[in-house]
Amino acid sequence: MEKSLLLRKASRERGFTLIETLVSLAVLTIGLMSVAALMSQMVGTSSRSRGMSTAALLASEKLEDLTHYSNSVPPANLAAGGSLAADTAGYFDTVQISASNGISARTTSEAGVAQTIVHRANGTVTVAAGNVAPADPDAQVYDRRWSIQADTPVANMRTITVLVTLPQPVNAPAVSFQVSTVRP
Amino acid sequence: MKITLVTVVPVPQGSARRGGNAGFTLVELVIAMTVFLVIGGTAMTLFRRHVSQFNDQQGQVGLNTSLRNALTQMEVDVANAGTGYFTTVDKASFPIGVTIASGGSAVACNAGQTYPAACFDQLNIISTDSSTPPGRPDDGTQVGCTNTKATPAFVIPPAVINPATGANWTVAGYAAKFNVGDQILWANGLSYNTAYVTGPATVAGPDISIPHRLTSADFTANSGGALGTDPLGISTVNDASLVTSFCYNTGTVVKLAPPVIYGVDTATNPANPVLFRRVGAGAQTPIADQIIGFRLVTTLANCPLAMTDWPAPPAVPACNGNPTNFNQIRTVQISLIGRTTPGANSADSFHNTFDLGPYRIEAVSVTASPRNLSMND
Lengths: 184, 377
What we know:
The structure holds two protein chains of two kinds.
Chain A: H1 2-13, H2 18-67, E1 92-98, E2 104-110, E3 113-119, E4 125-129, E5 139-149, E6 158-166, E7 175-183
Antiparallel strand pairs in A: 1-2, 1-5, 2-3, 3-4, 5-6, 6-7
Chain B: H1 2-8, H2 26-79, E1 98-101, E2 122-125, E3 136-138, E4 145-146, E5 153-156, H3 171-175, E6 183-187, E7 192-197, E8 202-204, E9 207-210, E10 212-214, H4 239-245, E11 246-247, E12 252-256, E13 260-265, E14 274-279, E15 285-288, E16 291-300, E17 329-339, E18 361-368
Antiparallel strand pairs in B: 1-2, 2-13, 3-5, 4-11, 5-9, 6-7, 6-12, 7-10, 8-9, 13-14, 14-15, 16-17, 17-18
């Protein structure tokens, strides 16, 4: 009688089995991992969306630059050429924006002449010939290429296409933004 | 036996600890509360950290948005710089659409986390008055060269239709367009000078006669009498060359519209430099708070390297054989650096790596192209 009482008491107060504990731990781990993955994805999405908005700004700025030239005496900047698939001298430049220390560096390429303009947060601005952007591990580097096709889509018209890419935003796939226009 | 069981396990009273209705012991309660406190405390800590990060993110998003908005507005204004020079047959060969006053970008300007006026440039966007077409200079005799230093100045009305009347501009009609306070600009591609109208213009034969106060090219008093300063930095000629600069029927005289001016106000609150936009002598409209860098870099027609600083115009190195380079500006790269409000997020111990301030820094830049300044290229 005493034994059976003790047994019944023991069976009422027994804890979780190892299997139960392991299963619950597994469920908890899966839940926590998905939350962590979601947070990481959110950081990536936010970084990518920022990259996309900057890429759109840079693309429209270049398009505006190539649109404002007169067509009566077209400058060298409007000569047909360039490629979106590879860097072509005179038809690409880079914009490097630092995420943390406020340095923005631009390598511009106007009519085949490259120069690098660097604005630092301490107010100094330097201009140097060639592509000499400072090495900056924090910086995001946007590549900008453009192509100008003469007599496209019809005679005496130019099709201008600008492609801006950011190869590696934080934890996110590459950003790429392309825009084009037709002008005389 | 069953009866015994009922009596052995009765409804708990007193010493019976594990009965169906028994409460928790003190020890159990203390342990439970401790566990609850630990878990709750951890959760609260996580939550607080999250709030801090959220505020931080909000600050950065706000900074990004305000910098972008400021750039977009400046881009539009710069694109339209120099309008109105080409409205008639009297075209200005070299319109001036953008002038810049530089804070000096060769040396670091910040004193720790304070950013004084030297950290900022000023952007002046100039266009002509759209209802007053450009005229041509004269000295009142239809042969000589204008002595713009003397007052009044003579201007030949343009031979174009006045939209208000449907007929060509009359001398009287053209004179009525020039009134006290207006700024006028003489330009011939090599020399520029400006003056403020000091009285209503009158008819003088085929010309109009404008009483004016000349601005000084070198910002110092000269023999012209009561000279005004040249806040837009347009004038390029000094006294000696004024007489020969603007001759009969050559070059252009235009009435300028009130300029659009972008600058940074560091005087009102040195802890919060504000980017503002102002039209003429109007009130400053704040565009963006907490700006710590505003620089303008310009590329010029036929100049190999971009220019970072604009000294007084006569000292500008010649490019393309021209003593003034403002008319050579083809693109303006606008760089803005802003920061989140210092110390706004007290729960966050973040300090940036540049000036170690309790704020984040962001830089944006855009290259704006003044559409009207490249028409002669």
